[in-house]
Design a protein that fits this description.
Layout lengths: L1 H38 L12 H24 L6 E7 L2 E3 L5 E6 L6 E2 L4 E5 L2 H30 L4 H26 L2 E3 L4 E6 L6 E2 L6 E4 L4 E8 L11 E5 L8 E7 L13 H4 L3 E8 L10 E5 L6 H4 L1
Antiparallel strand pairs: 1-10, 1-14, 2-9, 3-5, 3-8, 4-7, 5-6, 7-9, 10-13, 11-12, 11-14, 12-13
Helix pairs in contact: 1-2, 3-4
C-alpha cells in the first residue's frame, strides 16, 4: 500500500514539473501573439489560441500520467500459472497366448465401440486342441451311454455309471475351455474410445499378455501439474481450475481428483527453510472437455486464491 502511494506521489510531482517547464517554453509565443494583435491593422488569427498554454500544460500532464501508468503496469508481475501436460490412462488389449497377428481391422485414430473386432491371431494350435477334446468328449459320451444302458437292464454296476458320468463332465469342461481359447484369438474392444497406438502389425509375432494396441477412452484423460508447497493449502480435491494452452478455447476447465501425499524432487530430509521452498506436489485433474485436448500437450493451470482448507475445517 505504501509503495503504491509513493508511486502516485512521484507521478504527480513529475506532472507538475513538466507543466511548469511547458509553460516556460510557451511564454515567448504567447507574448509574440499578444504583440501581433496591437501592431497589425487587420485582425488575423493569433499564432496560438488564447488558452494554448493552459491546454498544452493539461495535455502534457495527461500524457505523463498515461506513460507512468503504463510503466507501472509493466512492473506488475504476471501470473504464469503452473506448468503441466496432458496424459491418459490407456486400455491395453492383448492376447492370452502367444501367436502371430493375422489381421488388423483398425488403424490408429479410429473410433471403436464396445465389442468391435480389433485384430486376429493365428489359432492353429488352439484349433487342434479343440478337435482333440471334442474327440475325447465323443468317446466319453459313448461310454456314458453304454454304462447307462447296462445300468437300466441291471447288467452294469453303479460304480461304472458314476465313472462314465465323471469322464463325460471332464470332457465337456475341456471342450468349453478349448472353445474359450479359440474365441480369445480375436481381440474385441472392451471399452469405447480412440485407437491410440498399434504395437504389432500383421505378420508379427506377439508374446502372451503383450498388448497389440491401446485404446484411449475420453473419460480417462487427465492433467498432471506440480504446485509448490506454499500453494498446496489453496487446493482441495473437487476444486475447479482453469486451463490454458496454445490456440485452445478460453473456457477450458478441469476438476482436481488427486493430490499427492508426498513431495517430489527434494532431498529425503529437509534441514532448512530454503530447502523446504523446493517442495512440489503432484496434482491430477480431469478436464471438462477432453475432446479439446491431446495427449502430451503442454498446458498452463490457473486457480483463484481462496480460504485454505485448514481454515475451512
Amino acid at each position: 500500500m505504501r509503495s503504491s502511494q509513493s508511486i502516485s506521489h512521484l507521478i504527480l510531482r513529475s506532472a507538475e514539473r513538466a507543466s511548469r517547464r511547458m509553460q516556460a517554453r510557451l511564454r515567448p509565443f504567447a507574448l509574440r501573439d499578444a504583440a501581433s494583435r496591437f501592431l497589425r491593422v487587420r485582425g488575423r488569427q493569433p499564432l496560438l489560441p488564447p488558452n494554448a498554454i493552459q491546454f498544452s500544460a493539461r495535455f502534457c500532464s495527461i500524457a505523463i500520467l498515461v506513460l507512468a501508468t503504463g510503466l507501472t503496469g509493466c512492473n506488475e508481475k504476471r501470473d504464469p500459472g503452473f506448468q503441466g501436460w496432458v496424459e491418459a490412462d490407456m486400455i491395453y488389449v492383448s492376447p492370452d497366448e502367444a501367436g502371430r497377428v493375422t489381421k488388423l481391422n483398425i488403424r490408429e485414430g479410429d473410433e471403436v465401440k464396445v465389442g468391435d473386432n480389433l485384430y486376429s491371431v493365428d489359432d492353429d494350435l488352439q484349433l487342434a486342441d479343440l478337435n482333440q477334446n471334442k474327440a475325447t468328449l465323443a468317446n466319453a459320451q459313448q461310454t456314458y451311454d453304454r454304462a447307462a444302458s447296462l445300468s437300466k437292464t441291471g447288467s452294469g454296476t453303479q460304480a461304472n455309471l458314476d465313472s462314465a458320468v465323471s469322464a463325460l463332465r471332464v470332457a465337456e469342461a475341456r471342450v468349453a475351455t478349448s472353445e474359450t481359447r479359440m474365441a480369445r484369438r480375436k481381440g474385441f474392444a472392451p471399452v469405447a474410445g480412440t485407437i491410440q497406438q498399434i504395437y504389432f502389425r500383421e505378420g508379427e509375432m506377439v508374446a502372451a499378455q503383450r498388448p497389440v494396441l491401446s485404446i484411449m477412452p475420453p473419460g480417462n484423460m487427465k492433467l498432471r501439474f506440480f504446485v509448490p508447497e506454499s500453494e498446496l493449502p489453496k487446493l482441495a480435491i473437487g476444486d475447479t481450475v482453469r486451463i490454458a494452452c496454445d490456440n485452445c478455447a478460453a473456457d477450458l476447465t478441469a476438476k482436481i481428483y488427486f493430490i499427492a501425499t508426498s513431495a517430489e524432487y527434494t532431498p529425503p530430509v529437509i534441514y532448512s527453510l530454503d530447502e523446504r521452498n523446493k517442495l512440489v506436489y503432484l496434482i491430477q485433474a480431469r478436464p471438462s472437455r477432453p475432446d479439446a485436448l491431446r495427449v502430451g500437450q503442454p498446458i498452463n493451470v490457473y486457480f483463484n486464491p481462496k480460504t485454505p482448507v485448514a481454515d475451512k475445517r
